[in-house]
Amino acid sequence: MIECKVTGLKELQDELLTLSPKIANQALQGALVAASYPIVKEAQKNIIRAIAPYRLYTMAKDRLMAKTMGLTSVAQVVEPGWLEKNLVRKRVKQDQHGAQTIIAFKNQRQTFFWKFIEFGTSKMKATPFLRPAFESQQQVAVDRFKESLTEKLKDLTSLKVGK
Q: CA Rg, the chain, in Å?
């Protein structure tokens, strides 16, 4: 898992601690979603697309289920660009002044093979798309995080003072 720790934001941290945990968490989540956007877009550009549609076969336990249902085929046709369309950002719930956003795939069952593309196998060379996206967009993401969190905190503290 790739992580980035932002340091040097003592004032923002102090401001977050003055807010209720629920409001602080909302501000952090919004800032993380905004920060992860350039990484996701870059990763989508980096994914190698298939030339033509291909068949994706299901696992053994699904074959048994298909056989009991009377189905003859346990393969699904996958269109080129499917992996890139399913790359998304997801929020992970945290408790008190914590937030986490991950970059994942919508359908985990059918995106089982992304790690083979990213890291390669003994028979296939690696064609990474997530690591280069993170490395090239890391500073942009940190800047977006700072800007977004600062704006959200200004809005929230002005509402707090106004009440």
A: 21
Calpha distance 158→153 (Å, rounded): 8
Is the separation of the CB atoms in 141 and 43 below 8 Å?
A: no
Which has more pLDDT, 118 or 18? Answer: 118
CA-nearest of 39, 27, 67 to 134 is 39
Residue 94 counted as domain residue: yes
Amino acid at 93: K
Structural domain span for residue 91: 36-147
Residue 65 counted as domain residue: yes
Looking at residue 2, what is its pLDDT? 54
Task: Give the total number of structural domains in the chain.
Answer: 1
Q: Which residues pair with residue 87 across a beta bridge?
A: 105
Whether residue 43 contacts residue 130, with contact meaning beta carbons closer than 8 Å, is answered with yes
pTM over 0.90: no
